[in-house]
Amino acid sequence: MTFLSIVIPAYNERDRLPRTLELFLEYLSQQTYSWELIIVDDGSMDDTLVAIAEQVQKVDELALKIISQPQNRGKGAAVRTGVLASTGDRILFSDADGSTPITELAKLQTELDQGADIAIGNRRDSAITVRQPLYRVIIGEGFNLLARLALQSKIRDTQCGFKLLSGDLAREIFAQMQMTGFSFDVELLYLALKKGYQIKEVRVVWIDDKRSKVKIWRDPFLVLIDLLRIRQIHG
Q1: Whether residue 136 has pLDDT greater than 80
Q2: Rounded Cα gap, residues 92 and 159, in angstroms
Q3: Which residue, 40, 149, 174, 207, could crosslink 82 as a Cys pair with Cβ 3.0–4.6 Å?
Q4: Range 154-174 average pLDDT
Q5: Residue 217 in this model has a pLDDT that exceeds 90
Q6: pLDDT at position 54, please?
Q7: Which domains are assigned to the chain?
Q8: What is the DSSP letter of 47?
């Protein structure tokens, strides 16, 4: 790998993003490869952009890109914007809360080094240092079962927000994607599998953040509707 792009979508992340950026920048500064960090502010209504600005002075301006979307369009739309603006040979997208530590990146890199096209974090079989409440686990497992059926795949965890892709592949697929919300992960994997790309799941450390932006009684049902839409749109 010669150049890594990291995309972080952010919506009202004033409280969580600064610490995540601090850890990411500390890790990246120790690496021998070149990198760029792309933060996509998804129409935040708090001072997320101020939090980002506080970190800018610590980074070469060429290594940090800040993209501000005027309106909140959804996590999928934010990640898509960041991926299409990237230039890296490989692209990692990661959640703003840093639930999966950036140090886990090395595990995903190993899979691509060995020939995989996409490496995705797996929280279901992972070292979870802080666990979700039981009702979230039950709903999450139910959704993952339906996602596996939609994908006709044995992928255990479609929704982990820690995925590494070959750069050209990522830009090719994201250019075709239409889901703007949390279902974008399934759409990504659906298109990748349809094109015959090799996907590897990797057990990663994961720390549950009780401040999750997922609305547990609404979003899973919206995603289920999107599962049907994905099949209709892409065949």
Answers
A1: no
A2: 14
A3: 40
A4: 94
A5: no
A6: 67
A7: 3-234 (3.90.550.10)
A8: S
